[in-house]
Amino acid sequence: MDPASASATLAPRTRMLLQAPVTPTLLRLAVPNILNLLAFVGLITFDGLFVGRLGLDALAGISLVFPWVMLMQHGAASGMGQAVSSAVARSLGAGDRDKADALAAHALWLALGLGALSAAVMLPLGGWIYGAMGGRGPVLEAALAYSNVIFAGAVSIWAMNLLGNVMRGTGDMKTPAAVILACVVGHVALSPVLIFGWGPVPALGVAGPGWGLVTSFGAGAVYLLWRLQAPGGVVRIRRESMAFRWAYIAEFLRAGVPGMLNVVVNNLTVVVLTALAGRAGRDAAIAYGMGARLEYIVIPLAFGIGTGIVALVGTNLGAKQHERSRAAAWKGAAMAAAFSGAVGLAFALFPHAWMHLFTRDEETVRIGVAYLRIVGPCYALYGFGIGLYFACQGYGRVLPAVGGNFARLVFAAAAGWVALSVLEAGVQGLFVAIAAAFAVYAAANAFAVRRVMVQKS
């Protein structure tokens, strides 16, 4: 049976992925996910607002934990999550519902395993990690009070994200987006009650937002599990599909482990470049840190489009519609570039609007403005590279795109060091190196995607 005929027997969402015009479909898939991830950024912001009322030690403590929570969240939503979404999409595109059901069930097994692994690492080692980051005395106590609750309940974060990505693999972007939005609203409502106490509820202090996070995400995971067991779904977690088979976990890990590595490289890049900026002085390091925060807006935008790229590329690859899968990859990357570039260009034109959110210090603002004017317009290239990374996720071949991100790190670090130490070009020379590294990233991922397309055709 040819792919078009076969798709007529599939669910309406799968037919949409196989037949509807590519660009409108990408937009339809992207919008809920962009709102989804911006909601999570809002969740972290509210934590800071509430905990800030407990004092600077409490705020400093959760700041130490924040990068590790975001690493787990991004790993669950993007690194390993997109591997789940891609595997489900490819199975549905090939018309193999039984395998898609089994993959959905094994996403739950994977969430349980990764949640246990996160707890096993962070609970015993958290004190050493936060101490190495500078946590001492009351700051370290606050960090551990917050961290121990979150990582003891890490399975809730992994389960909600991986089960949500099962649904994204079917083309359903609205349900996971609605669930995470409900989780954020629940967290925002719970956190002040748990932090400060109310009626019979005792004041838990800095541990309160941790309990709010794992409780709300746990409820979201339970709801998604219930939806995936309900009759009539595109995929179902059935009793017989729960029988454990390592081959399905291995299929996730082949794309998911490189995806997790990509998340690590993203964070490592910021750490290395912050250290390089510090060579130009404290103000330069602070300014770079404030400017680089804009990446945490660009990444959710590109991720929101990327989830649609994964579903479209994976489903059409499974259906052997290679031309359509290629069109989805390139058009999706161009869309990610347009959205990301718009953000970067806006703050390049009005840089003070961004910097004044964080500081009014004249020297810091001056350096930050230089960063935004030099690097901001190149966020289009960053978005293009991220879009192509997700295309590789859809093809199930992520490692080449991770190599592109690593090339960005190496180029930015090497060129930045040369600019500062050899050419004595100052911090502006470092910013030019960072901007050029985005071009390296886009070019490397374009080359990677072309190779993967040839191999998969």
From TrEMBL:
Pfam families given in the database record: MatE
GO molecular function, one term: xenobiotic transmembrane transporter activity
Keyword ATP-binding: no
Cell location: Cell inner membrane
Keyword Transmembrane helix: yes
Predominant subcellular localization, coarse grouping: membrane
Membrane topology value: Multi-pass membrane protein
Transmembrane segment boundaries: 25-44, 50-71, 107-131, 143-164, 176-198, 204-226, 246-276, 296-317, 329-350, 370-391, 398-420, 426-449
GO cellular component: plasma membrane
Keywords: Cell membrane, Membrane, Transmembrane, Transmembrane helix, Transport
Protein name in UniProt: MATE family efflux transporter
Species of origin: Ramlibacter albus
